[in-house]
Fold:
Amino acid sequence: MTTRNRSAAREGASAKSAFEHRGLSERTIRALLACAIDSPERLLFVRDETLLGIPGVGAASLSEIAKYRDRFLP
Structure:
């Protein structure tokens, strides 16, 4: 594994861990990270229409995300 690959793997693991314990499934987290939504804070402001355009995000994921948002947004 090259230095660049190790660095990318560390960044991916770090971004993934930022989503842990927020009520999101592993599948939802992988889908978000694959589309460069790499922090929970960014997720608060992404429109539902945009989220539904992400492969792997459907009704179940939107429900998880809505519950997460309800904790932080009025």
